[in-house]
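Troubleshooting entry. Yesterday's outputs looked truncated, so today I'm pasting the complete records for two proteins to confirm everything comes through intact. If either block looks cut off, that's the bug. Protein one:
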Amino acid sequence: MSRLWSWLFAPVPLARVALFRRCVYAFVIVDILLLHTSGYRHGWADPVWYQPLYLGEVFRIPAADVPQVEILKWGTVAASLLALTGRLPRVAGALVAVGWVWYQYVAFAYGKVDHDRGDFIVALLVLPLIGMAATGDRRRSELAGFAFRAVQLACIATYFLSAWAKVRFGGWDWVNSATITRAVIRRGTFLGDWLLHIPWSLHATQWVIFSLEMLSPLIFFVSEYWRRRMIAGWFAFHAATYAVITIAFWPHLIMLLAFLPLEQYRDSAVARWRSWRGEEPRLRTSTSP
C-alpha cells in the first residue's frame, strides 16, 4: 500500500501545474467558441427532443433555454479568462468546471455522448484543488502529483475502455470487418480515398488501433524515455486519424500533456529564445503567479 500511495502522490513541480492549467483553460475558451458549439444551439431546440442523461435525472435538470445557454457560454469563458491569470485558482477553476460540464450536458442531452471528454472533466475537477501555482515555481507538491495521476489514469482509461467497448458491443467484427473503410467513405479525405485502393491497409489499421488501445496501460510501467515516445506516438496517431477521416479528440489531446515535463520544455524554449536574442541565461525562481 505504501508503494501505491507513493505512486499516486508522486510530487510534481508547481510550474508544471501552472503550464498545464494554461493549456486546459485556454482550450475551454476555444472549445466553447469554435469547436463544440452544439450546447449553445440547443438553447433554441424544442424541449421535446431533450433526453436527460444520468446527471440530469439525479439533479432534475430541465431542458435548456436561451438565457441558460447564454449564461453558461459567456460565464464559462469569463471564468476561464480569470483562471488563465492565475488569480483565485480554486474559485475560478470551480466555476470553469461547473460551467463547462453543464454546457457539455446541454450538448449531449440531445444526442450522442463523446467519450473523448471524460478525462477532461477529471482535469477540471482536480485542478482547482491545488491552489496557487506559477510557471517559475520549482516547489513540488504531492497534491499536484495526485491531480496529475488522476488525469493520467482517466486518459489511459479512455483508450483501454474504448478498445474494450469495441469488442463488447461490436464483437470481433469491429477489427475483422470494414469499420474504417465505412468511416473513410462517410468522411474521408483524399488520403483516406487513396487508402481505399489498398483494402488490406485499412483492415490492418483496425488491428493496430485496437492493439495500441489495449496496450495503453503499459505507459505506467516504462521509463521516462519511453513514456515520452509513447506520447509522441499517440499524437502522431491522432494526427494521422484526422488526416484520413477528419476525426480529432481535441480535449483528450490536451490531457496527454499531463504525462510530459512541461516545465522542462518551457525552460528549454526560453533558453533558446534568449540565446537567439543574445541574452545571458538566468534561472527563474519567482513563485508569484
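Protein two, checking that the full record survives here as well:
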Amino acid sequence: MANTKRQLFIKRRLRVRNKLRRTNAGRMRLSVHRSNKNISVQLIDDVNGKTVAAASTLEKDLGVVGKNNIEAATKVGAAIAERAKKAGVETAYFDRGGFLFHGKVKALADAAREGGLKI
C-alpha cells in the first residue's frame, strides 16, 4: 500500500524531531510551521513545556501580513532572533518539522542566524 503525501510528511516530521531530541537534549527548540499562506516559528522550552517566543507573518507589526515568500520568512527569522535575545536565549536547535530545508524554511533559519541566534 502506497503512503500518501500526508503520511510521508508525518513520518519525516517524527523522524526529524526524534533525532533532534536525542542529540540536543536541554536546548530550546526552534520549531517552524509553513502553510500555504503563512509561516510561523516558535521557540519552545521542552523541559517546561512552554513557548518562550514566537513570530509569524500574521503579525501586523512585521509588515508582511498574508505574505508567504522568502522576504516575509526573512523578516520572521529576524524577529524571532530578536525576541529570543530578549528572553535570554542564545542557542537553540532548528526543528524544521516535515518541511524540506530550502526556500522559505532556509531563509528563516539564515535570518535567525544573522540575528545572533546560534542554531
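Both blocks look complete. Sanity check on protein two: The first strand starts at residue 28 and ends at 34.
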